[in-house]
Write a structure and sequence with these properties.
Length: 723
């Protein structure tokens, strides 16, 4: 059956196929431009991949000589991490210390009595304190679970709480201070205190009388510019003895603000001053001898001539003794000689004898008066005023003295007690000085504490140290000590250079260098053997390299760059001591295994690592290893020599802003953009061409249709005429 052609639906002459064939020829220039774009994109990817490899090498090289180099990294080793460990920074020095952990820092952790699950906490303001931090909130009342949740929300990382099911339908409330250290005691106030007592967290008890003991002042101390060398402890009790004519002041630490019931009490005693008694006895004896000698001299003077009188005086003086003239008669009393003259002779004779008597026995100064005053104690206050205490009892036995402090102080703060012993023949003693509140106070204590607030106590190199936390960062510069458990066995912390970081950095540099050399060898050569030599790569990685093989073949700049890198890795470098260093000395070379025979892969510039030799170098010669990668040769604090510095200088022109890589990729981008604009132009031309062809072929088919219709009409007309 012949095909049925419907104009506009199916072409009689298969014009679509003819137009398509013609358009394929017209698209040849466009396809050529598309291939150019694909080639340009491949080149751009190759440059970008090369740029990444160069950047990786640069970063690994800079790591080895910058101020963040691994040679300054420190690591700490502990002989027992379960007891004590350490974290160190670059600021730490190579050192070691021995530690013993006596006590861990802990915070208060209290538990309540078992509570029913439906236990209700009343409404109120609940305040919990840890040291200087307060956690306070209003609770509207509710279950113990709701109270626990509220406390945890408001705890502000200072306090936490939890409920532990100890029995079915029975729970214990546990509250814990998250701040460790003896200063951070967990305390309860407002409604929290009553809650703690009601639940059995705290137990209340009377603390008994409040005593504030005042220690004795040590002998020989200097107070108020008065030397207390004569002040000594008494033999009975912890007291002081203040000798005659001495004084001292006993300070009340931080001052005392008296309460209505507070008492000041102590015991006192007064005893004879032995030195003063001995002086009185000696004075009486000397006075008796003095008077006897003076009377004998006068009698001899009246009864004998001058020469005999002189002998009498000499004899009397011998009888009286030389000490007689040193006695001092009491003031206002007539001497014995004058009394004798008054009885034995007339008044005129006595008056005539006075000059001779005074010349032979000159008058002596009277002794100081005998002072006896028991108003010895004064209470001093912070405002500079003072109040005298009642006189003490003049007794050699101990006597209790008690004063109601509030009546004496009258609202003032007592700061000290002055002892002013103005007596000439009395020593004053005082002991057991106390500020005493007979009423006492009621205090609360944890009933069953799980742990109590305490400081960590460690011994470092024989020195005992206390800290409020188990994380101690202020002992050694750059070191943080982590205390984990108590142990009597010493733990050694050894701080040294982080050798693993050094080794990793060196291996990273070698790896980055080899990857870059592979990239340069593949891009600049069209030799399939370059890829086959890379036996450590899998087939997928090798296929990716084949796509880039010879991509920049003949690029002289990349060939020079490759050669420059090889020279950097094999050149000699000087150490600070003038020693010549090669990278091969540290186990890094192009053929460290010294394999026999010719191996073309060894000529590609790849580096190998003798790990054993590298480890030995890091352990014993890390200083030179550091200097071969970077050294300041002129002392200006800037690294100007070494492999790391040389690599950085060599690759910088390629990867810096506006460098070779950026310029090459930028140029390719421009070419791609131009080609894409050209394709847009060609596409427009192709659209016009295809439209023109379709129009022409459409007209042809229309004309053919008209002719066919005319032919059919003629045939019909002829058939009709033949009839």
């Amino acid at each position: 059956m012949p095909d049925i052609f419907v104009p506009g639906v199916k072409s009689r002459f298969d014009t679509d196929k003819m137009i398509s064939g013609l358009m394929e020829l017209e698209r040849v220039p466009r396809n050529r431009v598309e291939k150019e774009i694909e080639t340009l994109k491949t080149q751009k990817e190759n440059w970008q991949t090369l740029g990444r490899r160069i950047t990786e090498l640069r970063e690994s090289a800079r790591t080895l000589y910058s101020f963040q180099n691994p040679f300054s990294e420190r690591t700490a080793f502990s002989t027992d991490e379960s007891v004590l460990g350490a974290e160190v920074t670059r600021e730490s020095l190579d050192q070691n210390h021995t530690f013993t952990v006596k006590q861990l820092a802990a915070g208060d952790k209290f538990v309540s009595n078992p509570l029913q699950s439906d236990y209700k906490v009343p409404a109120g303001t609940y305040t919990f304190s840890t040291g200087k931090n307060d956690v306070s909130f209003k609770f509207n009342g509710g279950s113990i679970q709701e109270f626990t949740d509220t406390l945890n929300r408001r705890g502000e990382s200072k306090i936490s709480a939890q409920l532990i099911a100890v029995k079915p339908n029975t729970k214990s409330f546990i509250i814990e201070s998250l701040d460790t250290g003896a200063e951070n005691r967990l305390t309860f106030s407002d409604a929290a205190e009553k809650f703690a007592i009601n639940t059995g967290i705290l137990a209340s008890q009377s603390a008994g009388p409040k005593l504030v003991n005042i220690p004795a002042v040590a002998a020989g101390s200097q107070i108020e510019n008065l030397s207390l060398t004569a002040v000594q402890k008494t033999t009975a009790g912890s007291g002081l003895t203040v000798p005659a004519m001495a004084s001292t002041t006993i300070a009340l630490k931080d001052g005392v603000a008296p309460t209505e019931t507070m008492l000041l009490r102590f015991e006192t005693s007064v005893s004879a001053n032995e030195e003063a008694v001995a002086a009185d006895k000696a004075y009486a004896e000397k006075l008796s001898v003095y008077n006897a000698g003076k009377a004998a001299w006068e009698a001899a003077k009246l009864e004998a001539p001058d020469s005999e009188a002189a002998d009498g005086v000499e004899s009397a003086s011998e009888g009286a003794g030389a000490e007689g003239v040193s006695a001092v008669p009491p003031a206002g009393e007539p001497d014995g000689m004058e009394a004798g003259l008054a009885e034995g002779g007339g008044a005129g004779d006595a008056e005539q004898m006075k000059p001779a008597v005074n010349e032979a026995f000159p008058p002596m100064e009277p002794p100081p008066p005998n002072v006896q005053n028991m108003n010895i104690l004064t209470l001093n206050f912070s405002d500079g005023t003072s109040a005298a205490l009642n006189p003490v009892k003049d007794s050699n036995s101990w006597n209790m003295q008690s004063y109601q402090l509030d009546k004496i102080a009258e609202g003032r703060t007592a700061v000290s007690i002055t002892i002013n012993n103005i007596n000439t023949h009395r020593d004053f003693s005082i002991k057991d000085i106390q500020l005493f509140d007979p009423v006492g106070e009621v205090k609360t204590e944890p009933r069953s504490p799980i742990s109590t607030a305490q400081d960590a106590i460690i011994v470092m190199d024989g020195i005992e140290i206390e800290r409020p936390t188990n994380k101690i960062d202020d002992l050694v510069a750059g070191m943080t000590i982590n205390v984990r458990s108590v142990s009597d066995s010493p733990v050694l912390i050894d701080v040294q250079t982080d050798k693993e970081s050094v080794k990793d950095a060196v291996i990273t540099l070698v790896g980055g260098y080899n990857r870059l050399m592979v990239e340069l060898n593949v891009l600049t050569r069209n030799d399939e053997s370059i890829i086959r030599e890379l036996t450590y790569m899998n087939s997928e990685e090798q296929n990716e390299l084949r796509k880039r093989l010879g991509g920049f073949a003949g690029d002289s700049s990349l060939l020079r760059f490759r050669t420059n890198l090889q020279e950097i890795m094999t050149s000699p470098y000087n150490s600070s001591s003038g020693e010549t260093l090669f990278l091969g000395d540290f186990g890094i070379n192009t053929d460290v295994r010294r394999s026999g025979g010719y191996d073309p892969s060894k000529m590609r510039g790849y580096l190998e690592i003798d790990e054993k030799l590298l480890d030995e170098s890091i352990n014993s010669n890390i200083g030179n290893l550091r200097q071969i990668f970077g050294l300041d040769t002129d002392g200006d604090k800037i690294i100007d020599s070494g492999i790391g510095r040389a690599i950085d200088s060599a690759v910088r022109p390629y990867v810096e802003l506006g460098g070779v890589i950026a310029a090459r990729t930028g140029s390719i981008d421009s070419k791609i953009a131009a080609s894409e604009r050209r394709i847009e132009t060609i596409d427009k031309q192709l659209e016009k061409k295809e439209a023109s062809l379709r129009s022409q072929y459409g007209q042809m088919e229309s004309a053919y249709d008209r002719m066919e219709k005319l032919s059919n009409s003629l045939d019909q007309f002829g058939k009709q005429g033949g009839k």
